[in-house]
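Section 5: illustrative case.
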């Protein structure tokens, strides 16, 4: 057995006995607890550094060109990082980081090898030779190092003067000099950041932000390209969860974030840690917010939706066709909601989740349109139109009634559908009218398929079915919640 393995096993055994348990920590004073964590953190930095050194060696010994002698191949994995991940139980990102940090520590050893214990005791170690103890951290020592611009970072990490997280993020955020001949400027920046870590006790996240800012100052072209890259990644994703809630995943660049967050923070500043010194009007507003039972997250959500609604109304982008919220509600439910906001149910356009009576009344008061009223048979209350095409209001009625393409198994939403005449206009002059009850929503594919394959949609009372020649009719069931509500409340009567 290698001597180093024996020593580490002995260390592990002694560490198990030395490390604190719940009872040890419980009896400590606050100051002693802080001291204990400081010592454990120092120990972890040493262990992390050792793991990184071994990880880099494993990665080197797992190179593809080693063929069957590759450590990774012999372990049944693809790469050295994957083998490190398997052994340590870490994430893939942590394993890759360990390999990267290990490479920097190897660089540190090549530049400034550790002095032997005997040499340190005799005081004969060369000035450039660094060790964990007892050498104090020193910028002067780091300035004298040879090697590439990042040599001071590597040695500071190896000596425990920076944590592996601090050093790795500093190195990654500064990036490579551009052009390469400017390595001296990058080294000066690295030394300044190392000093900031010591003097300002910067966290790893702080180091990363500071290094990126410094890199932008050193390389204006990178700063411009980085700003464009961040802006190009903007996105908004909408996901309907299983419980009916809708999640928006918004990703924006820092400038756009400032444009969004600044008014939100200003609006809710008293709840989010705003300034203490305010005018009388601001204090009154602050008192109202403090008494508001909503959580900060709920207040932010309500403020953002309010800003969006106000912006849409004032923008003029939509002309007279300002987008409004369409709510489907039966006459009975609307009367209940008006009489008692705790009662009544409505349904949003194309959604099978209910809207409470209080929300219905509030939405109507705020300008949202109750898009269609339904009678108790499920028929939309609207006017017959002596034209071939369905009106905008009638299409809204179809959307609110059908909830999307009625074809069995189709999930196309109302916006992607076309209105199909149950009674073809061309068959008889009596069909020369357009009523909501004689139209259904079908997506473009199923609409064309219906006509091309000779199928028909038949209406029997308020029910619709898909009829194919020589087959049993298939009932078309609307997907909208208001129809489900009527089916639950009203027993099927066949009409």
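Designed sequence:
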């Amino acid at each position: 057995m290698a001597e180093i393995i024996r020593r580490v096993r002995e260390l592990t055994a002694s560490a198990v006995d030395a490390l604190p348990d719940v009872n040890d920590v419980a009896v400590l004073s606050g100051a002693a607890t802080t001291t204990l964590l400081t010592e454990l953190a120092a120990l972890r930095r040493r262990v992390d550094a050792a793991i990184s050194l071994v990880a880099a060696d494993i990665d080197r010994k797992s190179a593809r060109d080693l063929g069957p002698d590759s450590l990774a191949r012999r372990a049944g994995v693809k790469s050295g990082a994957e083998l490190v991940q398997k052994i340590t139980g870490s994430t893939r990102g942590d394993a890759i980081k360990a390999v990267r940090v290990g490479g920097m520590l190897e660089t540190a050893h090549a530049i400034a090898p550790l002095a032997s214990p005997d040499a340190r005791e005799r005081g004969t170690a060369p000035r450039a030779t660094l060790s964990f103890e007892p050498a104090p951290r020193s910028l002067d020592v780091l300035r004298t190092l040879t090697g590439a611009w990042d040599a001071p970072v590597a040695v500071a990490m190896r000596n425990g003067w920076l944590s592996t997280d601090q050093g790795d993020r500093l190195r990654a955020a500064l990036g490579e000099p551009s052009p390469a001949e400017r390595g001296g400027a990058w080294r000066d920046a690295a030394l300044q950041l190392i000093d900031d870590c010591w003097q300002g006790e910067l966290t790893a996240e702080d180091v990363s932000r500071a290094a990126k800012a410094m890199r932008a100052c050193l390389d204006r072209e990178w700063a411009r390209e980085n700003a464009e890259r961040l802006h190009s990644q903007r996105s908004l994703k909408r996901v309907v969860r299983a419980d009916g809630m809708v999640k928006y995943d918004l990703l924006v660049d820092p400038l756009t974030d400032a444009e969004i967050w600044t008014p939100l923070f200003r609006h809710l500043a008293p709840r989010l840690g705003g300034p203490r010194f305010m005018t009388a009007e601001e204090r009154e507003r602050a008192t109202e917010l403090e008494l508001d039972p909503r959580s900060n997250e709920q207040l932010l959500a309500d403020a953002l939706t309010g800003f969006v609604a106000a912006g849409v109304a004032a923008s003029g982008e939509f002309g007279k066709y300002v987008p409004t919220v369409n709510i489907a509600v039966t006459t009975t439910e609307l009367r209940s909601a008006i009489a008692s906001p705790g009662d009544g149910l409505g349904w949003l356009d194309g959604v099978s989740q209910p809207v409470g009576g209080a929300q219905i009344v509030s939405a109507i008061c705020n300008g949202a349109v109750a898009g269609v009223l339904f009678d108790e048979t499920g028929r939309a209350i609207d006017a017959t139109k002596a034209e071939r095409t369905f009106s905008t209001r009638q299409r809204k009625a179809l959307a609110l009634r059908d909830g999307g393409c009625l074809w069995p198994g189709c999930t196309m939403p109302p916006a992607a559908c076309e209105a199909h005449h149950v009674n073809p206009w061309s068959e008889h002059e009596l069909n020369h009218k357009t009523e909501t009850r004689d139209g259904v929503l079908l997506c473009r594919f199923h609409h064309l398929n219906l006509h091309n394959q000779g199928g028909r949609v038949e209406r029997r009372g308020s029910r619709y079915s898909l009829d194919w020649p020589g087959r049993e009719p298939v009932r078309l069931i609307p997907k909208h919640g208001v129809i489900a509500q009527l089916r639950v409340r009203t027993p099927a009567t066949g009409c």
